[in-house]
Specification:
By secondary structure, this protein is of the alpha/beta class. The protein has two domains: 131 residues, Arc Repressor Mutant, subunit A; 218 residues, 3-Layer(aba) Sandwich (Dna Topoisomerase Vi A Subunit, Chain: A, domain 2), CATH 3.40.1360. It is 39% helix and 17% strand.
């Protein structure tokens, strides 16, 4: 079932998946499906692309293995549901698909799916196996990201053009599906893209018209950015050649958010080429900024044991084995604290827009 090359026709790929199972049944064989292993044991950091990539290991899910039977059935249901969506020419959310498939199996009084946490990983299994995208299976997730700044975005399917300087307090809502067929860039005057981790910080930058004063696009993924936001970042850099700067909390989770934007994620390593942007740079926040900008120590937060453990894990990741990053993470462990972007407001409510970000950008004070 595992495809090495990205398939051009997802419907055909799903049909072939089903035909393989039927052929095994006709031969009185135990139905078996092979799936890429999607965990830390089967990913590697590609030095050439600077992305986290999926390896060649596969696992087997067999119908007559009691430990696999339920998940085998669920995987077939997900594949069938995706094929129906493609046939009908409609898209739906991954949550809608979960509810569409959820029912009680007659005579057994057992649910096909208990929670969405069961169906979501199976969608990713099928994506990885067919070497396609969830969007090509006519599925999308709830959109999270927002964007504001000097660019016009056209959405052909809705026959609309969105001037992202005139979207008000909420900005342009970044769609879950951001492929060129659905989102097209028009009339971009921005010189760079600034991604901030938190919506509250994005609201401050939007209200202060940071994007207008510095001629840039300001985006947020509201925490860990969703796939639509990451795909948008990837396309803005690759198609418009815009520099990408990331601003997140000075903690292990903020650092990891940056790494996901830059290198891709372990779980979605099979689509890193579309979701990762290796040229992204980390603007801040860092624990070393505390001294540089005279940030009061009373707004820092003491590291807990989970923070310390996660920091050690980051130091072991190949993509964090760069001198500047090792220095920052070790400095955090040494001083024993972390801090949120909102801590900059202890200086002044507009300190981040009027002093911190302009100075960091001007000095090109980035981490790689």
């Amino acid at each position: 079932m595992v495809s090495k090359e990205r398939i051009k026709d997802p419907k055909e790929g799903l049909e072939n998946f089903g035909k393989d199972i039927v052929k095994q049944l006709e031969k009185i064989q135990n139905p078996d499906m092979s799936l890429p292993v999607r965990n830390l044991s089967n990913i590697y950091f590609d030095d050439k692309s600077k992305l986290i990539m999926l390896g060649d290991k596969v696992s087997h899910r067999t119908y007559l293995n009691v430990a696999h039977t339920r998940k085998f059935m669920q995987t077939v249901m997900v594949a069938s549901g995706c094929k129906k969506l493609i046939q009908q020419g409609v898209t739906t959310s991954i949550r809608d698909l979960f509810y569409n498939m959820k029912h009680t199996i007659p005579k057994y009084n057992e649910e096909t799916f208990e929670t969405q946490e069961e169906s979501d990983p199976l969608i990713e299994d099928i994506e990885a196996s067919l070497n396609t995208l969830r969007e090509n299976l006519h599925l999308h997730a709830e959109q999270k990201g927002s964007l504001v700044g000097p660019i016009t975005i056209r959405e052909p399917s809705f026959d609309t053009e969105n001037d992202c300087t005139k979207m008000g307090a909420s900005g342009y809502g970044i769609p879950s599906i951001c492929e060129p067929e659905t989102v097209q860039f028009r009339d971009c005057k921005a010189e760079f893209v600034l991604i901030v981790e938190k919506d509250a910080i994005w609201q401050r930058l939007n209200e202060d018209r940071f994007w207008k004063k510095h001629n840039c696009l300001v985006m947020t993924g509201k925490g860990q950015p969703d796939r639509g936001t990451r795909r948008m970042i990837n396309r803005l850099h690759n198609e418009l050649k815009l520099p990408i700067y990331v601003c997140a909390d000075a903690d292990v989770w903020g650092f990891y958010i940056y790494s996901v934007i830059k290198q891709g994620s372990i779980n979605l390593s099979f689509v890193s080429d579309r979701l990762g942007t290796p040229q992204a740079k980390y603007l801040g926040l860092t624990t070393q900024d505390v001294a540089k900008f005279s940030i009061p120590k009373n707004v820092t937060i003491k590291l807990n044991e989970g923070d310390k453990k996660r920091a050690q894990e980051l130091l072991n990741y190949v993509w964090f084995k760069k001198k500047d990053w090792e220095n920052e993470i070790k400095h955090m462990l040494q001083v024993g604290y972390k801090l949120e972007l909102e801590a900059l407001s202890s200086k002044d409510i507009r300190f981040i827009t009027e002093k911190y970000l302009p100075q960091k950008i001007k000095e090109e004070d980035f981490l790689p």
